[in-house]
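Input/output pair, single chain:
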Amino acid sequence: MKKYIPLALPVLVNIYPLVGIIFLGWNVNLTLLTYFVETLILIIFSTIKMIMSINVWDPESANMNPYWVTQSRSQVLSNFLLLMYVFMIVCSGAYLILWGRSITAFIATAGPAQYWPILSMAIFSLISHTFSFVYNFILGGERNTVAMSYIFRRTMVGRMLPLFLSTFISFFSVGITGSNSKSAMIPLVVIFGAVAFFDILAHFNEHKKS
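Output:
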């Protein structure tokens, strides 16, 4: 049972926004923004893990792309940060094009209580990633077994891919149904469903290595 403890917080983080929308009446378009907050927090922790990781590359990454073996620590880290920057710029730009008016209208009329979804998601996500970092990476020994290249791949597939995919689904759904809450629900479900799946998958993969 002990190995399943670190799964609880990431799963709850991914379910939490959907619960807020369905049961607490959160604004759907604004809640989609919470994923960007969670992604930024993840990028920060991934960067720290890559800096602290003992190994630069793992055999699986090397088999997928021999290019990994030729990369130094600084090259892997700089490539990671560059890709994260490009992905965030593209996805956040598309998000603002889709939901910019809705967000502007919300900011103009919302009181402090309406910002609770973003604030609570940031706090919840920060607690989850801090716990995972300390419990798994430091105390659990993943620092010695999980390579920089694996962290790179996990972040790209587990976070950036769902974010990028949901952006295109947003354009598709808005083009058909218009910019409303129901159309925003589609990418939201894709995002948090995909991230929950990849979090669970990565958790088991990392514990096989450690």
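DSSP finds eight helices and no strands in the chain. Residues 73-109 form the longest helix (37 residues).
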